[in-house]
């Protein structure tokens, strides 16, 4: 991710555009043909602006035109990704991923969320659940770049490393 994309994400956040409009724009810009047209240097700026005016909500048009004019529209995915992080941070919410073999019960998920929110001093946790049979048993909780490996696979790997070094 680049600093330039982060700067655009901060501007998008400051503009305080409703989430629904940002999400709709994000979905529309997943269209590869549209993105290719908006990033094509042979298409005139006024033609790109006309397309933006036709397709997108008026509250986000100016932002998209500036991104397009600065030849950065092809990395709009990075901008939206960083924007989502800024929005979560502003709400004191943290993202986490829980990989598991058997889906934990609701009360276990609640305890995991409480652990994460207390550990990272956040008011909420956006927990993504992923089934992963390769873990054999247990789970892996990933928060930011930190991994809490409580899986059988992880335990066996750790034991293997210990035995190999002896």
Describe the structure in your own words.
- With 166 residues, the protein is α+β, with helices and mostly antiparallel strands.
- The protein is built from eight helices and four strands, in the order ααααααβαβββα.
- Helix 4 (45-55) packs antiparallel against helix 5.
- The longest helix has 15 residues, at 76-90.
- It is elongated.
- The two termini are 41 Å apart.
- The model has no long low-confidence stretch (mean pLDDT 95).
Task: Indicate the topology.
Blueprint: H1 3-14, H2 19-28, H3 32-39, H4 45-55, H5 58-69, H6 76-90, E1 93-100, H7 106-119, E2 124-131, E3 138-143, E4 146-151, H8 152-164
Keywords for this entry:
single chain; 166 residues; four-stranded mixed β-sheet; elongated
Give a summary of the structure in a few sentences.
57% of the residues lie in helices and 17% in strands. The chain has 166 residues and is of the alpha+beta class.
């Amino acid at each position: 991710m680049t600093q330039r994309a982060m700067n655009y994400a901060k501007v998008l956040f400051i503009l305080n555009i409703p989430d629904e409009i940002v999400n709709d724009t994000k979905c529309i810009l997943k269209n590869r043909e549209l993105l290719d047209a908006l990033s094509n240097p042979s298409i005139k700026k006024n033609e790109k602006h006309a397309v933006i005016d036709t397709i997108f909500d008026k509250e986000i048009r100016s932002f998209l035109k500036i991104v397009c004019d600065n030849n950065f529209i092809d990395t709009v995915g990075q901008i939206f990704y960083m924007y989502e992080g800024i929005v979560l941070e502003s709400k004191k919410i943290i993202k986490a991923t829980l990989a598991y073999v058997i889906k934990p019960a609701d009360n276990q998920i609640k305890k995991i969320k409480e652990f994460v929110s207390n550990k990272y001093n956040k008011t909420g946790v956006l927990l993504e659940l992923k089934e992963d049979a390769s873990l054999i048993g247990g789970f892996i909780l990933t928060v930011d770049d930190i991994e809490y490996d409580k899986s059988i696979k992880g335990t066996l790997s750790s034991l293997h490393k210990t035995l190999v070094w002896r």
